[in-house]
User: What shape does this take?
Amino acid sequence: MPPQFGNILLAGKNQHREENVGTLRMHTGGFGWKSKKSGQVVAISKSDLKQVEWLKIPQAYQLKLRIKGGFYYMFNGLKSQARRRIAQSALASGYPP
Assistant: This one.
């Protein structure tokens, strides 16, 4: 089963709104995030990814996904165990470093 993590915040300008809390999933084709409240979906294809970055933030980690065209998505609230699971799955699936 692909890694799935709940209560993940889609970071950005309006990051403290309830609509920005959702579930992050990683699968062989990329990443997906879905808002718990609005149902909004963010889909990021593995072929569009340029870089995967981890940042330590207070009490958690941030996953920063850089995609083609200079855009990026940031997901806050990942614990160290989630970081290890994503890193292992990314390595096994051939994600960019």
In short: The radius of gyration is 12 Å. Helices lie at 80-93.
